[in-house]
Specification:
The structure holds 2 protein chains of 2 kinds. By secondary structure, chain A is an all-alpha fold. Helix content of chain A is about 75%, strand content about 0%. Chain A is built from 16 helices and no strands. In chain A, helix 4 (about 70-85) packs antiparallel against helix 5 (about 90-115), helix 8 (about 170-190) packs across helix 9 and helix 9 packs across helix 11 (about 215-240). Chain B contains 12 helices and 2 strands, in the order ααααββαααααααα. Chain B is globular and about 65 Å long. Chain B has a two-stranded antiparallel sheet with strand order 1-2. The chains are: A mainly alpha, B mainly alpha. The interface between A and B is large, with 41 and 45 residues. Chain B: Its main location: membrane.
């Protein structure tokens, strides 16, 4: 592969336009359906985690909102969709909308508190609001069934025709379509005026305020949108798994999705894909072999990633690509100027 | 004195003891956070190391409580100093997210290590006979160990305050925090000051972990399970404020104890509601940094 090609790719990774890489992702989604039939259940949970990681990327990677409580939105979406299926309607698409709306409400309400602060206090507030919801779900046993998890609801066939089957074929196609829609939305979002101001705020909130941007209102909007996307992931999980447990609101989920995004690379939508796939596949294998030592391995991986790949795998790829371009610029006729 | 009031009083005393223990565990983080600005999510893992070291030196080496606890503290300080010199040095310059990830990775490693070494059962450091039993004052019954805990935490708090305000190391430390470059210029060995401070923070965590094991039993997942408790005390107190951590520990300890007794249906809900409410009213904590 020639270097201009690589650097063009690196530029495309940054600018977030639709490129050949998106075609590769779509092809991978289709290929998984046909060639990994035995692993469709795992594949569905990977897709759901990618959606959650994308949602976290919008808040953390693009707007710089530090959060350790993203499970709050996943869980609200999951419980809302589960309760909706149990009491109102078993139609899946409206369930997704309900899940997204519930999570958006939670996002807007907690955002009012969270976004007034920064740094560790912000992390604490996101953590406190997620733990608050977890305790609420634990206490309200009549509604959520507490530790036992919300079960006993069914989901109607997709579009009234496609039943959710045991092998997870319908679930996979459903999740893949939702993921692609969320992804397309995310691409448009990060290039929209709101998404661009988000990046400006992340880099320098004071400068953005000087430029006349209403920073707090923008952040609240972004946080709410991110929450809604996380709610979609939660609702999807509730519909596909037919159970919503307290772990949907737990600290572990918040920490895991943060780790996924960090491993993949924040502020780059592809990071969510790479990180979630890597993390889910590795932990699935490792949990089958030895969960304790997987925790140790994950810890070492994190420490090394912070040291050697602070921008995640995507950051590494970009650095490599840019380096190649620099070396190309240093080719013989340029060398005298470069030195 | 009627019984309802006596109940309330003994609950408040329990809450104060619990709060002092929270203060003891989190004050080390207050110092490292205030001084080095490192979001150390492995802090409660250091408390767990302290608990295990105390436990093992009592069980395997047959040492007494009053020897085992200092050994645990010193051991944890050495481990902390070693990690500061190697791993933590990497993340001083990175973002909060990088620090969070590195330190949580470290907590994962420590958790897995102790699960392999010590098994998964819940354990607590045995209390010596001299600290067992109760003092009875009228209708009130006061546990000797809790009184000891309150006394020990108060002594730690006082000596920290004196150490920071009255000693030359405290002065160097404050200088290193306020302006590292100038501190270096006047001949203060800033990296050494940081190492020592971090070791002290780890030692305090170890002390809290060893003494507080009656409230929070030692287990491999300790570091992750009680991380939230430590972080909320620090955040509610105001980042890096000693006085704030003390107030926050006491306040949250009492609120949690009263909440669990009077509204058991809400369980752990009350304390998080309190945290949210306090941080909403005072986003920078009870005692904000000036």
């Amino acid at each position: 592969m020639n270097t201009t090609h690589i650097s063009a790719m690196a530029g495309a990774l940054r600018r977030q336009r639709f490129t050949a890489i998106d075609a590769v992702i779509a092809a991978a989604l289709v290929a998984t359906f046909f060639f990994a039939e035995l692993y469709l259940a795992l594949a569905v949970s990977v897709l759901i985690m990618i959606i959650l990681a994308l949602s976290l990327d919008l808040a953390q990677g693009y707007a710089g909102i530090e959060t350790l409580g993203h499970a709050a939105f996943f869980g609200s979406g999951a419980y809302a969709a589960g309760l909706y299926a149990l009491h109102i309607s078993t139609e899946p698409f409206s369930g997704l909308v309900v899940g997204a709306a519930a999570a958006a409400i939670v996002g807007a309400l907690t955002g009012i508190a969270v976004l007034r602060t920064q740094g560790l206090t912000q992390i604490m507030l996101t953590l406190a609001s997620a733990t608050l919801l977890l305790e609420l779900a634990n206490v309200a046993k009549k509604v959520t069934m507490g530790d036992d998890g919300l079960t006993g609801y069914s989901i109607a066939p997709l579009l009234g025709r496609f039943e959710f089957d045991i092998q997870g074929r319908t679930a996979y196609v459903y999740a893949a379509v939702v993921l692609m829609l969320v992804y397309i939305f995310a691409k448009y979002f990060v290039n929209s005026p709101l998404g661009l101001t988000a990046q400006g705020i992340r880099e320098n909130p004071v400068r953005m305020r000087m430029l006349g941007v209403r920073v707090y209102a923008r952040l609240l909007a972004i946080y709410t949108i991110s929450a809604a996307v996380a709610g979609i992931a939660g609702a999807l999980s509730a519909q596909v798994n037919r159970i919503v447990g307290l772990d949907a609101l737990g600290f572990t989920l918040s920490a895991n999705v943060l780790v996924m995004l960090a491993l993949g690379g924040t502020g780059r939508l592809y990071g969510a894909f790479i990180g979630a796939v890597l993390f889910m596949l590795l932990s699935d294998r490792a949990a089958a072999v030895d969960p304790t030592n997987w925790l140790a391995a994950l810890g070492v991986l994190l420490i090394l990633a912070v040291r050697f790949a602070p921008d995640g795998l995507m950051g590494l790829i970009e650095r490599f690509a840019f380096k190649s371009r620099r070396e190309a610029a240093k080719s013989p006729n340029h060398r005298s100027q470069a030195r | 004195m009627n019984t309802a009031f006596a109940t309330l009083l003994s609950l408040v005393i329990d809450g104060v003891a619990y709060g002092m223990m929270l203060f003891l565990i989190s004050v080390g983080l207050t110092i490292t956070l205030g001084v080095m600005r490192v979001v150390n999510l492995a802090h409660s893992a250091f408390a767990m190391i302290g608990g295990y070291l105390a436990l093992w030196s009592m069980q395997h080496a047959g040492l007494g409580f009053f020897v085992a606890v200092p050994i645990a503290v010193i051991g944890t300080m050495l481990i902390g100093a070693l990690l500061e010199r190697t791993l933590y040095r990497w993340v001083y310059a990175t973002s909060g997210l990088g620090q969070m990830l590195m330190t949580i990775g470290l907590a994962f490693v420590i958790t897995a290590l102790f699960k392999n070494l010590g098994g998964t059962q819940l354990q607590s450091v045995p209390i010596p006979p001299s600290l067992q039993g109760n003092w009875n004052v009228g209708p009130l019954s006061l546990s000797v160990y809790r009184a000891f805990l309150v006394g020990a935490s108060a002594a730690v708090g006082l000596s920290l305050w004196l150490g920071l305000e009255r000693t030359s190391f405290g002065a160097k430390l404050r200088a290193s925090v306020d302006n590292p470059r100038i501190a270096r210029c006047v001949g203060i060995d800033v990296p050494l000051v940081f190492s020592v401070t971090f070791a002290i923070g780890c030692g305090l965590a170890a002390l809290g972990g060893a003494l507080g094991s009656q409230f929070l039993p030692i287990e491999p997942y300790y570091g992750l399970k009680y991380l939230v408790h430590v972080l909320i005390v620090v955040a509610v107190g105001g980042l890096g404020s000693l006085r704030g951590s003390l107030y926050a520990g006491l306040l949250l300890g009492v609120i949690d104890t009263l909440g669990r007794y009077y509204v058991p249906a809400l369980g752990a809900f009350v304390i998080y509601l309190a945290v949210l409410a306090i941080l909403l009213i005072r986003p920078h904590g009870l005692v904000p940094r000036s």
